[in-house]
Design a protein that fits this description.
The protein is α+β, with helices and mostly antiparallel strands. It has a domain of 68 residues. The protein has 2 helices and 4 strands, in the order βββαβα. It has a 4-stranded mixed sheet with strand order 3-1-2-4. The longest helix is centred in the last third of the chain and has 15 residues. The radius of gyration is 32 Å and the shape is elongated.
Length: 119
């Protein structure tokens, strides 16, 4: 199941709508579409914080213009959740093992044996 990523800003619990990355060589900050996967050197921002972001002094900001929409769970996410709940609610399959008693003609195979003093 894919969870909804949250804004990286402290005390903000809104869903992420954009990804912010720093290009240190060019002293540029790029704010664009939410990346497909969470990246360790990028920041996910909600629409509110992405629109109001300011870069460090002397740095350029590149806003890749798009409609920033906070994404909720998709139909695929909801379908995967429903399947997981159904699977968790079904009892596990148990194989029935039938143990039959040994027949009188079969020798018993116990874990004890007789040891005589002569041997």
């Amino acid at each position: 199941m894919i969870s909804v990523r949250q804004c990286s800003r402290p005390s903000c619990s809104l869903a992420a709508a954009a990804t912010l990355t720093y290009v240190y060589d060019d002293q540029t900050v790029v704010v664009g579409q939410l990346s497909a996967h969470a990246e360790p050197h990028a920041y996910d921002l909600c629409a509110h914080h992405a629109d109001r972001f300011t870069a460090p002094r002397g740095w350029d900001v590149v806003h890749i213009h798009q409609e920033l929409v906070e994404r909720g769970p998709s139909d695929d996410d909801l379908d995967a959740l429903a399947r997981a709940v159904r699977q968790a609610g079904t009892p596990p399959m148990v194989e029935e093992v039938v143990v039959r008693p040994p027949l009188a003609s079969e020798p018993r195979r116990g874990h004890l044996r007789v040891v005589s003093a002569d041997s």
